[in-house]
Predict the 3D structure of the following.
Amino acid sequence: MDIHEYQAKELLAEFGVPIPKGGLAYSPEQAAYRAREIGGSRWVVKAQIHSGGRGKAGGIKLCEDSHAVWRAAEDLLGKRLVTGQTGPRGKVVYRLYVEEAKTLAREFYLGFVLDRVSERIMVVASSAGGMDIEEIARSKPESLVRAVVEPAVGMQAFQAREIAFKLGFDSGQITDAVKTILGCYRAFRDLDATMVEINPLAVTSEGRLLALDAKTTFDDTALFRRAHISELRDKSQEDPRETRAADRGLAYVGLDGQIGCIINGAGLAMATMDMIKLAGGEPANFLDIGGGATPERVTKAFNLVLSDERVEAILVNIFAGINRCDWVAEGVVQAYHNAKVDVPLVVRLAGTNVEEGRAILAQSGLPIIAADNLAEAAERAVAAWKRNAAEALARGPRQARESH
Ligand code: GDP
Ligand code: MN
């Protein structure tokens, strides 16, 4: 789960990371009020969306007076910002963060990630902050400092000092840099984060160290024990299809194609998506209904896939080990009636009780296209989608599907 910059800053501040004075605003009036409350004579108005790269996309505005703050807020609120990370649909700005603006002398990068190779928390830092880490790795690889943390002892002060010295902080900033590095590490560990990033970690013209931007991502599977973190979730920043799926306990990723997929097992889902592409189609989603797919769960999956306007054919691909094909088949038949399936449906079953499952589908009298193997299933789904699209074109504009 991602959270907003201002939320990440508030959390990190509790671990001793120095942040600028700032305040949240939902309206231009509130933004101007925040600026007065903060004091000073220059402010930055920052769009709060779950994405980096806001600066380049016009989402960060430097303001010289409170009128400018008002105008910046008016301009940003309700706007759909498209950054290098949001995808073409972008994200809508509903919240702003107003901060005192600082004159920057230097910008650093400080990131904590889970390194799967060493199976450790890894610190990646650079004296060339401000630009994103991919760009640093490309253009200034010599500036990168890396260190892994031994889990048995946690990050040690000497390790943080070593990183701070390697980055080239002046003696006046070393203490704050060490405090920041250790604070980020503790936040990462204590809050079950999978990523903590400060970019830029700036040194101001007065020589003060400040985290000017912060991003944290949390481990979804640990959220149950972090109530104060899960409360920070902002559904307005998520793909609505994925939000609906998460609320129903389904593993789902929304994509832009036309073939809706209902599959058990992430590996099979990936393979099926590949086969759809090979057959000339594009998947509309990744959906893993998991083991123990009861008829109710299958119905939920159908409702979810059908609620996506993009879907023009559905492919169900089940390899039943823990699952039972007859149960899944019953689920498909029930879902067909309950969810008003109005697109071609291809079903491929294999594994436990496959004969019973196929018999249920055949006897249902429903126009379900059966397939024996994965390649055939993908080809039939793509063919059915193309046929349906051609017929729809001949029929004229289709009525919008009811949402479920
Ligand atoms: P991002 O583009 O989404 O990563 O948003 P940031 O919060 O990192 O802001 C983009 C850039 O704006 C930063 O890299 C800084 O160079 C600049 N910036 C942000 N806050 C300030 C500030 O208070 N003063 C100055 N001078 N620049 C700032
Ligand atoms: Mn940034």
